[in-house]
Amino acid sequence: MTYHVFISYATGDREVAEIIRETLESGGLKCWIAPRDVVGNYGAAIINGIESSKMMVLVFSSHANESSFVHREVERAAAKNATIYVVRLEDVPAVKELELFISSDQWFDATTSPLGERREELLQKVRQRLGEGGGRVGVRRRPWLPQLTKAIKPLWDVRVIGGIILLLIVWKLIMPLSSAINSGGNRNTNAVATPTPLASPERTPTPINQGNSPTPGPSQGPVVVLPSPAIQSTPAPTPTPVESLEHSQWLYQSGNVKYVWQFLPNGVLRARHEDRGTFLPNGRWKQDGDTVTIETSISTDNNARRDDREVYQGKIQGNTMKGKFLGLDPYDWVATRQN
After folding, report:
1. Contact, 317 vs 325, CB < 8 A?
2. What pLDDT, in 10s, does the model give residues 247-297?
3. Residues 64, 9: contact at Cβ < 8 Å?
4. Could you give the dihedral angle defined by the CA atoms of residues 184, 186, 187 and 192, in that order, rounded to the nearest 10 degrees?
5. pTM reported for the whole predicted model
6. How far is 171 from 182, CA to CA, in rounded Å?
7. Torsion sign across C-alpha atoms 313, 315, 321, 324
8. How many CB atoms lie within 10 A of CB 20?
9. 297 contacts 281 by C-beta, under 8 angstroms
10. Is the pLDDT of residue 140 over 50?
11. Are 134 and 35 in contact (CB under 8 A)?
12. FRET pair for 99, CA 20 to 30 Å: which of 91, 157, 231, 295?
């Protein structure tokens, strides 16, 4: 699937990123944004989203400066030669990890007025960038390309004309030689060819019937062919549908750490430490059949950076959910249903 825009943002700018997504999609542009469009492995889904998008919109702020996730997404988009359009929320300089890949002439300045009041302007700017990119994934403007093509075209015309003339000269030289070879080969056309005798077919001896029973033959009647019994195929079992996690409560455990996960509507996850009673903010969940992707914060701070978030993936097996933590040190985890 191809997208118009991949939206890269830090967790602290999630609300602004959602405003940008709503603005672009209301104008008919298809957007890729995490965690909504994450399917399967989180890292692979990010790479696929960047590669299948025509351009990247970067939500730039001090949060983006501090997010290593944003740095890697921008670096990957630049490696794929994708257009990067920056929506600037704060008047702060870009860190070196971002400065290499973004330029000042591609910024949408949202530092002086709220972005919600300039949605139509943002939509037109993004459409303009998409038009300059030629409508293909990973294509940037190359102003030097028309001049280079114009300079090469005369040379190409000269080479083509010279090649045609050379082919005509070679053809003129080869035709007389070909005619001479054909006339010499026709001198032996009157020679009589000696026919090759045909080998007579061998006769198969007729076996002698030494018994008293008559030899079966065609005169004994037609051969009756019995129908083969029909083979009954066993229908494939119908897969049991997996129930939605919405309004369910699960007890997550890894080692001595226990959390109660409450799966609320609209992909909201409420994670409560069973012993301490504290809550982790900004939890999200997404279900695709029996596969579940869960994103939680590792801090009770509502302004936790995107770097401080943990991503879990698991499979639902009845009242049990098992999976792996997708971090730098992956480990297995299990959760059991409580309601």
Report:
1. no
2. 899 998 877 778 898 999 988 988 888 777 777 777 889 998 899 998 887
3. yes
4. 150
5. 0.44
6. 16
7. negative
8. 25
9. yes
10. no
11. no
12. 295
